[in-house]
Every structure is written in structure tokens, then in C-alpha cells.
Specification:
heterotrimer, A alpha+beta (367), B mainly alpha (168), C mainly alpha (354), B: 168 residues, mainly alpha, 6 helices, C: 354 residues, 66% helix
Amino acid sequence: MAELRTEEFLVNMGPHHPSTHGVCRLILTMDGEKVVAIEPVIGYLHRAIEKICENRTYPQCTPLMDRFEYVTAMATEHVYALAVEKLAGLEVPERAEYLRVIMVELNRIASHLIFWGVTAMDVGAYTPFLYGLREREDIMDLFEITCGQRLTYNYIRIGGVSKDIPPEFVPKCREFVKMMWSKFSDYEGLLNGNPIFLGRMKDIGVLTPEAAIAYGASGPVLRASGVKYDVRRNDPYSVYDKFDFEIPTQPNGDCYDRFIQRLDEMKESLKIIEQALDNLPEGDIKCKVKPKLKPPEGEVYSRIESARGEMGVYIRSDGTTKPMRVKLRGSSYNHLMLVPEISTDVLIADVVAIFATLDIIMPEVDR
Amino acid sequence: MQALEPGIVFWILAVVILVSGFLVVTLRNMFHCALCLILCLFAVAGIYVLLEAEFLAAAQVLIYVGAVAILIVFTVMLTSDLASESLIQHNENGTIAFVVCALFAIGVPYLIKNTGVWMPAKGELISDNVGSIGKYLMTDFMLPFELVSVLLLAALIGAIVLARKERS
Amino acid sequence: MISPVFAVGELDGLFRWLNELLVSIGLPQPWQDVIMYAALSATVFGLLALIALFLVWWERKIAAHIQQRFGPMRVGWHGWYQTVMDALKLLQKEDIRVATRDKVVFFWAPVICFVAAFSAYVCMPFGRGLIVADLNIGILYIMAVTTFTVISLLMAGWGSNNKYALLGGMRSAAQVISYEVPMVVSLLAVILYVGSLSMVDIVESQSGWFNWFIFRVPFGPIAFVTYTVAAIAEANRTPFDIPEAEQELVAGYNVEYSGMKFAMFFLAEFINMFTVSAIAATVFLGGWNGPWLPSWVWFMGKTLSMVFLLMLVRWTYPRLRVDQLMEFAWKFLVPVTFANLILAGILKYLGYWE
């Protein structure tokens, strides 16, 4: 019997589309509702950050890093500062490192809250998005009282941080941590056991550990596939070796596991913040850095664990005040390449769920 | 609709039926053809209303417009090229079809005219025709009703078998 | 169906006055009827337009309060005439028409959608005697005319010449055809008991204490639940809003529509929600029946409670995928409703709940 077939057609999902989280274009080859092939097209958000860095002095590059990955801007500042400090051989005061860790972990929670809300919204539940933003608002308030900014902080500078925390920060932060612990039962009650949500997420977009490693996936995406790898633990930087925290992993690597993985990671971040607040040392917040910083000739690569995965900065210095070459590594780039890989035999609605749970943000891809 | 002459409504409906029926077989855009078919079926439902057969009218709309015609539109959307494609609706069998249709159009009135005496229905029109249709389907016409159901079931299973892909 | 009575209950006086006026100025009989029908239609239309505007505002407020926001607050007390202003804005907006659209189909789609949504109210009993025409095929008529909504969505999907719109139109057709079966079969259980399709008969058979169909255990509550689920799908609302799934199809069938044409789709959607709620209130919740208060208050109260339920569901649940939606309809809802129909038949035969 001849197979009944319908015609295939192309759908341009994006550059402007509600669920591509920025300006990503996915060329979908569709057979009715089924997606036969996906081709991501990138470059719509290219701002040439790496090139601009070559014409700026080292301290001037920090604000640009905020724009590299603006959902966790603290992490990008952190990785850049670590790279320059390693290159110039600067000793950062311990209090500054603790403050950095607190800020980065708070930012990680903020990012995961957005992920949580956006993923729920992408499968059709609108309300969680606003709940996620509600808690994120408190984090933004904490940042605001510290550095005056809410999105692009310019807080973590080369050699330390720009300002010390105000006296009300620590109690407010403890209050937030306490409040956040109490919210997880809400989050879990709202979606985790919902049959519709499970139907949309379970066994969709399964990423095997082998494929994850082959594509260079990192962060929550990799850990959701069962690979216990975290830069904070495997290659400790800053003061992360002083904290006691778990590296959560999930068994299956499907959309649901990636979703749960972020909820688990938020809890670990809260543990780190609690310990950092308890052990916050007194002292300077910045070492002496010359305004015209001239690191010696050479190259350096530093990496950290951002909310999305391994984030790296490579800097090559020629001994002048400006870097000769800056290369940024964002994990979203690798994760975007996973979309065609794990979207086999899916419907258009699954592509949205897969895209959402990989937590791809486009500025990190295009730079 | 006592307000309007029943004659006027009938003629309007008749013209709509004929014109849309003609358009179904002549229009070059398949989607427009399907929409004309819907209009045609809807106007037929209007005729039923004029004949005070409301149940039939509602069933006509519900089944023909609501299900059959929508399936046709659905099929058109799935199979034809997505850009509105024009197609030629006639082929080499056109002449034969025309002759057959012409014979039918002449033959049926001829037969009707020569069937003998036409008797108007005896007695009053039943006002509650929904109830009586239900009663008759469950009593006098039980067997045909069930036969039609079985036929539909067979068609349903046949369609599933045809559409089902062979499992490797 | 052909000769409805002007049975308009509380509004009776007004219409009688209008009729006497028409007689006194000596209009011929056909024209009198035409004007009376027009007046009646205008009343219902105006009422429904107000209801639609109210529902838009209400939905925004409910959504806002669920999400710990305030929603519209600026225009009037708690933004009560925000939607009026929005409608005025949409009226003034440019009517953007895609160059490659199918002209005729694109134009008629919102019109048909709007008309289909409103025509269901011909035999909706708003209260004791508050009904335009008590058709003896009442509920079947409502089911029949609302199918035109699907055609309009298909037309919008095709006429826009947009792939998202096309997918949305096809999804809506598949969805509505599938969910019409469980919806009608759940209603059939009640119709079987009442023995009439007339909306008035259905309401009157539920008069008295705890005589509503939702209280007639076990078939009544089951039919009510299956009906509500199917009705949410018929009204294209979350968790069954795949025809306009914002995150997948941007806006589905109405993606290319703007200005008043969009507003027609938008208002029709809210009218459809009110329709399915009104049917639920009439068939399962006893319609206008209830002690002390006027009949129309009971009807509106029950209907708005149903609307509230639909809104709560919408702002709580995620959306189903298209294949899950079909599986749920055919593999779960249809068998359950048919079993319930048989159950209702047996109970009726045995004489329960008569």
C-alpha cells in the first residue's frame, strides 16, 4: 500500500518569535505538525563585543561583559575579572571574593527563576512567570542597594568589587534566603506533578550523556543528563573550595530533568549564600590596581560555572593597556547546537519546550 | 418568518443553492470551492427550515457543515500547495459527464410528470417533529437505522485500516 | 422555529409598548414583525456586547490577581472601562491587510466568527420568559450554529496566507471536531432524561430542591465534568488553546488580523466562553431556577461562576500538545461520555431521579 504523505513545508520560527528568547531563527521543516528538520540561524544579536574589547583598556571592558550575558551579568564580570587578575598576578582580598560569590550565586538564582517562569510559560502556563519574577525582584533590590544597578551591574571589578555592601544588606539577604526556601514547595506544587506538564516534559528531547559530552554541553544541561561535572567543584576558583554544597544530577536527561535540575541548583546556591554570609570576613574589598593596568605579555583562560554552564574568557595580552584578543565562551552556543540533535521525531510544541529547557539566551550565542 | 412571503425566501435560497453549487464545480481555487459547498449545504438547511423540518435543518448544519465540509476543507489545506493554487476543474471526461447530467436533468422531471397522480399528505403536519423522528427511528425504522449505523462503523474501520501505516 | 413568541418576561412591557406604537402608526403586519425582530436582536446584541466587554476586563483582573498584580487600574474605578477604551482604540487602528491574502476569505472570516458567536443566543434562556425564541430543537440549534466558528477560523487561517495562521486554523478544526463529540454526547445524557431538546423544557425539568442535573448522581456530575472539559476545548482556552498557542504559533489563526477585525475575533472568543458557560448553567446547574432572587440573577450568577471556573483553569494549567489533546478526546473523553450515556439510559429506564 502506498504510504500516505503530506507535503513538507518550511516555517521560519523567528528571528522574532515569542519563544526564541531573543532573536534566534529556527528554520523548521514541517510535515504537518511534525518537525522533520531544524536549522538554527544565529547572528541577529551580534554586537562585536570581542572586537570592541580590543580598543578599550582592561578596566573599560568590564561594562561590556555585562552585555555579554545579561541574565547573569555578575558571572560574566566575575570570569573576566578572574582572567585579568590571573594575567596581571593580582591578589584579591578575601572579603571581595566572598562578596563576589554571594552576588554570583544570587544572580544564578535570579537566572534560574527566569528560566523556571519562562519554561512554564513556553508550555502554556502563564502564571509561574510572574511568580518567578516576583522573587527575582527581591534579588534585584539587593543588587540595587549594593551597586545601584538592577541588570548591568558593573560591580565585580578587576581586583575586587566596586563598593562594599551596605549594613542592611546582610539582614536583607538572610531574609531573602529564608523566604526563598519557603517558596520551593509552591513551585513544586504548582507544576512538578501536574499531569499536563509531565506529559509535555517527560521523555521529550532526551539528551544522552555521550551526546552531551560530544557537543560540549555543560552546566545544568550536562548534569541533567547524569554527568556530575561542575566547574565550581572540578576546577575550583575564587573561594568555592571553602563551601559545602552538592552537585545535583538527574537520571534521564529529558526536558523534565533539565527543569528539575534548575530547581535543585537553586537550593544549592542558597546553601552557598548562607555559608558565605556566615563566614563573611572583614577587610578590604579591593586590592590596589593601577588605573592604566598593563598586564605582562602572555595569554590566559579562566572559566567559571555560570547559570547556564561553563563560561570562559580567553585573553591574550601584548603588554599594553589594551587586550590584544578577547574570546568569550558562552555555553548557550553549544546548547543551541543541541537543538537539532535532540529534536528527533517531535512536534512543533516540543521544539519550544526543548529550546526553553536548554535555557539558551541569544546574547551569549552571538556576543 | 411569517413576516416575509415564504416564496421570496424560497427563491433566495434556491438561487444561493444553484449559484454556489455551480461555483463548487467551476471555481479554480480549491479552498473557495469547499467554502461554496458549505454555503450550498447551509442554504439547503434553510430550505428544510422553510419546510418546518427543523431537526433535519439542524442535523444538516451539524453534520454536513460542521463535520463533513470541515473535513473537506481540512483535506484541501493539507494536500494542495500552501500558496493558493489554481487548478483546472475539468478533464477529458467533461463531455460524457455533461451528457449524463443533461439526461438526468431532463429525465427526472419527465419521470416525475408521468408518475401519475400526486397525493398531498393526509392529516395535519406533526408539530413536534423531533419527538416523532425519534419515535420512528426507535420503532418502525429500527432496522434501517441500525443497518446504517453498522455501515458507518464498517466505513470507519475501513478508513482507519487504510490510513494506518504499516508497522515495520 | 418559524413562529417564535415574543416571550421576553421582564422586558415584556417595553416590547408591548413598541408593538402598540407600531400598530398605531399603521404599519403593515410584515413590517411590524421585521421591526420587532430587529428591536429584539438589538437588545440581545447590545447585552452580549456589554457582557463581552465585561468579560475581557474580568479576565484581566482575575489573571492579575492570580499573578499578584492589579491589572487595569487607571481608567475608572479599578479600570472598569478599560476595555471600552481598548475597543475604541481598536476601532481607530489601521486595518492592516496582507498583500498576499485571499481577499474574500480574509474579509469574511471575522464576520462569520462574530455572527456565529452571537447567533447561539437565539434560544438561550436568560431567565423565566427571557428568551428570544424557544425553539423545539433548542440545544441542537446552538450546537449547529457554533460550528460556524470553526469554519471562520479555518477561513482566517487560509485567508491570511501565513503558515502560523494555517497551522492554527487546522489545529482548531481538528480540535473542535474532536471535542464536539464528547460535548454533544455529555449533553445527550441530560436530553435523554428530559425528553426534549428545548432549552426551556430542560430548565423547567430541573425546578425544585436539588433537582439540578449536577445533583443527579452518578450520571449528572460525570456529564457535567466531561462537558466542562470539552467546553474548554470548544472555547479554545488553556489547557486546550492550541489553535492560538502563543509560544508555538505566535497567535495562530488571527496572527495577521489587526484593528476591528482582530477585535471581532477577540470578542467572539469571549462570547463563546460565555456561551459554553451558559449552556452548562442551563443544562446542569438548573438555569434560572433558584429561590428568592429573580430568575435572570440566578442565570447570570451560575453562568458567571462557570466563566470564573474557566478563567481559573486558564491561568493555572499548562497547555496540552496537539497529539495529547487528540488522544485525550478520543481515548478518554469519548468512551467515558458514551458509557455515561448508557448509564443515564439505564437509570432512566429503571426510573431513578424522575
